[in-house]
Structure formats: C-alpha cells, structure tokens
Amino acid sequence: MSMEFGDLTAQITGERLVSAAGIAELRRLGWADGRMTPDEAEALFVANEISDAPDPEWCDFFVEALTSFVVNTVEPRGYVDAEMAEELIARVDRDGRVSTMTELELLVRVIETASNVPASLRTYAVHQVEEAVAMRDGPTRQDEVDRCGINQTEVDLLRRVILASASERPARIGKAEAELLFRIKDATLYEANCPDWSDLFVKGVGQYLLGFAGEESPDIERMRELESFM
Fold it and tell me: For all residues of the chain together, what is the average pLDDT?
C-alpha cells in the first residue's frame, strides 16, 4: 500500500467522514499501478466500517473498487476462487449476517461481474436476503416503516444473483435456486409483498419446472404448489 493511500484512508477513518475530493484522490492512488493491493482493500473496509453515514458516492466507489479487487486479483482474471470467496465472506460477516447494504451490494456485484464464483459465495449472498425476509430485519430493511413480506430491494437482489453469469445455472434457474424461491414464498404467502415478487417466483420456478433443469427431476408436490400459487 502506498504511503499516500494509507495516509488518506487513515485520515478518513479518523475524521469518520468521506469527502468527494477524498474519493477522487483514492481513485487516483488506488489504481495508480493498475491494480489494488490487499492492504489497500483492507484499508477501504476499515474506512467503510468507521465512516458515519457514508453517502452514495462513497458506497459506489467502495463497491466498484473492491469488486475489481476481488474479481481481478486471482489469475485468470474474472474468476473468484474458493479462498478469495472465503476471505470476502469473513470480512463482511458479523455473526452470520451482513450489517450494511453497501457490503451486501458488494457481494452481489462480485457475483454479477465474475465469470465464475464458488457456490459458497452465492449461497451466502442469497441467505442474507432470505434471512432479511424471514426476520423482517437487516440491511435491506433500513428506514422501512412497514415490515412487508418481501420488498423491492430484496426481489431485485435475488433476481440479480439468480440470473448472474456466475449463478448455479446462468440465465436459468437451478434446483437450489428454485427451492430458495419456494422457501421465501412459504414465508411470505399471507404478507403484503412488492408486486414484482410474484413475477420473479412464477417465472423463476416455472423456468425450472418446465425443463431447464437438465436431468434433475422436479418434485410433483412442487409442481402442484406452483400451479396453486399461479
């Protein structure tokens, strides 16, 4: 890590706020040599944890910079190996949960951007959304007054992970993903859900059941559940 980059992130950590000028300087210093180092990535994580109420510009920079680091550090670039996935999960995990929307967005962006990621990273990301729905709490529920069954943010995150190029079955729905949708459906069946949830569930599970699962045989009870839901 360069001295300038370290000094600037230390200043941000000490002042607990990030200015637009500070972000511009971090961009310049972080990519001065064409790639970010592990020490620079760690400094950004610390600054993000300490900063008070980071604004959208900081969140965008944090996600962009660390996505590039995670996806392009291991050769061949574009592939996230198991070790990198474990390190990322360990860095954002707090007793099994992600505490901020910025960190959850980072997980989803990595899955979207990479050509391939370990199943453990996808599982962890969608588990965060499933937990938020089940508990009616979490980073996707910040500033939410009415605790609905599943909200728009959660539907959008699920759609992005499930249909990402690095998903279980890119642009298709695999068995694990279909089961996830069924569990959320069961948990929110009698709740006020965002309008897009029904569309995601029906199209996602319908795609799996209508023959996109290869040799996997859909359970007849699941087929009956989908028909009943529709």
Answer: 81
Of 85, 161, 80, which Cα lies nearest the Cα of 114? Answer: 80
Phi/psi for 125 (5° steps) reads -65, -50
- What is the distance between the alpha carbons of residues 45 and 200, in angstroms, rounded to a whole number? 33
Query: Mind giving me the DSSP string for 130-177?
Result: HHHHHHT-SGGGTT-SS--SS-HHHHHHHHHHHTSTTSSSTTS--HHH
The whole-angstrom separation of Cα 110 and Cα 166 is 9
How far is it, in rounded angstroms, from Cα 100 to Cα 158? 17
Element (H, E) at 122: helix 119-135
Task: Report the distance separating Cα 112 and Cα 83, nearest Å.
Answer: 18
Q: Note the pLDDT of residue 28.
A: 72
pLDDT of 112 > 60? The answer is yes
Rounded to an integer, what distance in angstroms lies between the CA atom of residue 194 and that of residue 155? Answer: 8
Give yes or no for a contact between 8 and 26, defined as CB atoms under 8 angstroms apart.
Answer: yes
C-alpha 100/C-alpha 136 separation (Å) is 15
Question: CA–CA separation, 143 vs 152, rounded Å?
Answer: 14
Residues 132 and 182: beta-carbon distance below 8 Å:
no
